[in-house]
Amino acid sequence: MPKKTLAVSAPLVEHLTHSILVLRGQRVLLDSDLAALYGVETKRLNEQVRRNRDRFPPDFIFELSQDEYANLKSQIATSSWGGRRKPPLVFTEHGAIMAATVLNSPRAVEMSVYVVRAFVQLREMLAGNKELAKRLDELERRVEAKLQTHDQAIAGLIQTIRELMKPPQTKKRPIGFVTPKDD
After folding, report:
1. Per DSSP, which regions of 58-99 are E strands?
2. Residue ranges for the chain with pLDDT beneath 70
3. How far apart are CA 86 and CA 128, in angstroms?
4. Given this model, what pLDDT does residue 173 score?
5. Count of domains in the chain?
6. Residues 6 or more apart from 3 whose CB is under 8 A from it?
7. Helix, strand, coil distribution of the chain in percent, nearest 5
8. What integer pLDDT is reported at residue 4 of this predicted model?
9. Cα distances (angstroms) measured from residue 26 to each of 39, 92, 135, 170
10. Would you say residue 19 lies in a domain?
11. Could you tell me the residue range of the domain that residue 119 belongs to?
12. What pLDDT was estimated at residue 131?
């Protein structure tokens, strides 16, 4: 029988989904967001990660560069991080789950379920967006082909109207006596 806390997962998963960022082509969570989720201080989370560095290969966790950190702070507009001395660590999906194992607290284990669900929900949303993008591209190609055909038809109509607007050329009668030529 599932725990009661798992039944209220939808709002938490939704909140987590919005906390997931895309950096260096990977979906990641900031160390401060993950620490808040697991109910520990960011400092303690990073401490445990550094003590167990062999459990976190580069595809599980990485540190932001100064440029990425500055860009991230400018996107958020107000820094709620409170004067960090180092750029944050960011955790991929696998890194976030591994962090729960090094923390080894009941809350971390329970919250790891929500992390997995948030990443899965985001993956499903992206897959749906790919299908939508594909259909939109197809529609755009069809509309463009029709517009090209319609543009040619409209250009033909305009040319015909211009021809009709020209006054008919009248044959000018030559000056003097002219005899009709026999055909």
Report:
1. 61-63, 89-91
2. 1-16, 73-84, 182-183
3. 37
4. 74
5. 1
6. 110
7. 65, 10, 30
8. 42
9. 24, 7, 25, 76
10. yes
11. 4-128
12. 77
pLDDT of amino acid 149 = 83
Task: Dihedral sign for Cα 35, 12, 9, 56, please.
Answer: negative
State the Cα–Cα distance between residues 138 and 146, nearest whole angstrom.
13
Strand partners, 90: 30, 62
pLDDT digits (tens, 9 = 90+) for 19-33: 778 888 888 888 888
Q: What confidence score (pLDDT) does residue 2 get?
A: 44
Q: List, for residues 69-93, the tens digit of each pLDDT value.
A: 777 766 655 555 455 677 888 888 8
Across-strand partners of 29? 91
Residue 169 lies in a domain: no
What single DSSP character describes residue 87? P
Distance CA 38, CA 110 (A): 9
For 117, phi then psi, to 5°, come to -65, -40
How far is CA 88 from each of CA 15, 71, 76, 134, 159, rounded to the nearest angstrom? Answer: 20, 13, 14, 36, 65
Please answer whether residues 76 and 84 qualify as being in contact, where contact means their C-beta atoms are separated by less than 8 angstroms: no
- Looking at the domain assignment, is residue 160 inside a domain? no
DSSP secondary structure string, 121-175? Answer: HHHHHHHHHHHHHHHHHHHHHHHHHHHHHHHHHHHHHHHHHHHHHSPPPPPPPPS
